[in-house]
Every structure is written in structure tokens, then in C-alpha cells.
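Entry 14. Structure prediction run on the chain below.
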Amino acid sequence: MTMKSTHTFLSIIAIIAAFALIAASTFVTPAFALKRYFNCVTEIANKAGQLTLQDVNSCYDKEFHTGQGSSGSSTSSGK
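Output returned:
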């Protein structure tokens, strides 16, 4: 192999590796957010002995960074 073809080959491998890392991170990040959400809900339920819809919505808003009132937490007052 010549120096130019080796350089081109390594460049292609680097680009493919970069795309693979970006694709993998798009799948891993939501999985961690889901794990933190379930941990939040479980912690509240274990600490308080009960779990309300408001608690569930606050965990959802905290872990998935939704805006105020966008997750349906404003509709949970219809008890």
C-alpha cells in the first residue's frame, strides 16, 4: 500500500468510527434518562409510602427536561 492509500483508508475508518459513536450515543442517553426516571419514582414511593400522579409528573419533568405544564402535570389536578 502506498502512503496516500493508507492515509485515505485510515480517514475512512475514522469517519465510520465517529458515526458509530454518534449513533450509539443517541441510543444510550435516553436509556440512562429512563433509568433515572424509574429511580426517582421508586425513591419517592419508598420514602413517602405512597406515589401520586404529581410525583410521577415531577420526576418525568426533572429527568426528561420538559417545560412547565407540557407533560400533562397541569391536568393532574382533576381528582
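Confidence is low (pLDDT under 50) at residues 70-79.
Filed with the rest of this week's runs.
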